[in-house]
Amino acid sequence: MIFDKIIITGKSASGKNHLFNELSKLIPDFLVKQTTRPQRSGEKEGIDYKFIQEDLFLERINSNQFITHEKFNINKETTWYYGISINDFKKSKLCILTPGEVKVLKEKNLLENSCIVYLDIERKVLEDRIKERNDFNDDMKRRLDSDDKDFTLFKDYNLKISNPHFKIKEVLNYIN
Question: Tens of pLDDT along 33-75?
Fold first, then answer.
């Protein structure tokens, strides 16, 4: 592999987890983020995320254990946090990042020799996928509107994929 790290980014339901799962068969050193959001059906603790309580998450922020973290206000009563621990990031070769995380890590010069794969799939496909997987524990419109805003000026990628039926082989050919 010519890159030290493979970074996957894209909107909700763009295929990030599918690509990540396929690549993790070849790249076993992958990043597992920490989050306070509820575990979704089919997600595995320590594989998809490390699910932790908000008080522990905030304690880790205060003790500088995260290289970056983000806060999402879901509604007036609900806030979710996501974070990347310094040690976990240093050990990883494969990860899924948001545009905000990409920006922070790039500013800290931590993405040198990384390949950023951006899955830029049209909104109608994303809506259909979210409906198919019955992922209604979060408001679909809010998520996709937020993603549209986050990715509006996103240009920090090496490979952009717009085909919703992309082949893993395209990505492997690019990164090798």
Answer: 999 999 988 889 998 899 999 999 999 999 999 999 989 888 8
Sheet of 94-96: strand order equals 94-96, 5-10, 114-119, 159-161
φ, ψ of residue 112 in degrees (nearest 5): -60, 140
How many angstroms separate the CA atoms of 89 and 80, rounded?
Answer: 20
* Rg value, the chain, Cα: 16
Per residue in 107-144, pLDDT (tens digit) is 999 999 999 999 999 999 999 998 887 655 557 788 88
User: Do the beta carbons of residue 112 and residue 47 sit within 8 Å?
Assistant: no
Who contacts 62 (Cβ-Cβ below 8 Å, separation ≥6)?
none
Question: How far is residue 105's CA from residue 120's CA, in Å, rounded to a whole number?
Answer: 21
Residue type, 117: V
Q: Which residues contact 153 (CB under 8 A, 6 or more apart)?
A: none
> Are 10 and 119 a contacting pair, CB within 8 Å?
yes
User: Which CA distances in Å does 57 have to 53, 101, 134?
Assistant: 6, 17, 28
CA angle 12, 10, 109 (to 5 degrees): 135
Q: Are 46 and 33 in contact (CB under 8 A)?
A: no
Burial of 150 (0-12, 13-18, 19+ CB in 10 A): middle
